Amino acid sequence: APLSASTAAVTVSIGNSTVVTISGGVPAASGYVASSGNTGVAIVQVTNGNNLTVAGVSAGQVTVTISDSKGNVYALPVTVPPTASFYTTAPGNASPTFWVEARNRTN
């Protein structure tokens, strides 16, 4: 069977990871090899020979290259979406005094 992955593309958020199963081709005794085209966007690790963990580092798109012992290559596109910043409290650089003055201002 040709070298392939259990999904045609991966979307993973920053700080999270997902596991993709690699199959086909001719794995080496130690399994398949994978590399990220940009480790600043996503990092990868193969465990148990055929489980590819893809972890999001920063927003962007990158191609993860999976290869077997015969040099067959499978390209897996990975997207790491940008995350929105949510404040549940006042930003750390805002002083309580500023908030009171702003609230009490009437002009």
Structure, described:
The protein has 107 residues and is mainly beta. It has one helix and eight strands. It has one helix spanning 96-104; strands at residues 4-5, 10-11, 17-23, 33-36, 42-47, 51-56, 60-67, 73-80. The strands form two sheets. Strands 1-3-6-5 form a four-stranded antiparallel β-sheet, with no helix packed on it. The chain has a four-stranded mixed β-sheet with strand order 2-8-7-4, with no helix packed on it. Mean pLDDT is 86; it is low at 95-107.
Blueprint (SSEs and pairs):
Layout: E1 4-5, E2 10-11, E3 17-23, E4 33-36, E5 42-47, E6 51-56, E7 60-67, E8 73-80, H1 96-104
Parallel strand pairs: 2-8
Antiparallel strand pairs: 1-3, 3-6, 4-7, 5-6, 7-8
The level of helicity is under 10%
Structural class: mainly beta
Uncertain stretches of 5 or more adjacent residues: 95-107
- What gyration radius follows from the Cα positions, in whole Å? 22 Å
Helices, by number, come to 1
Mean pLDDT: 86
Run of helices and strands: EEEEEEEEH
- Major sheet attributes: 4 strands, antiparallel
Sheet with most strands: strand arrangement: 1-3-6-5
Q: How far is the first residue's CA from the last residue's CA?
A: 73 Å
What's the total number of strands?
8
User: What overall geometry do the principal axes of the alpha carbons give?
Assistant: elongated
Strand percentage lies at: 35-45%
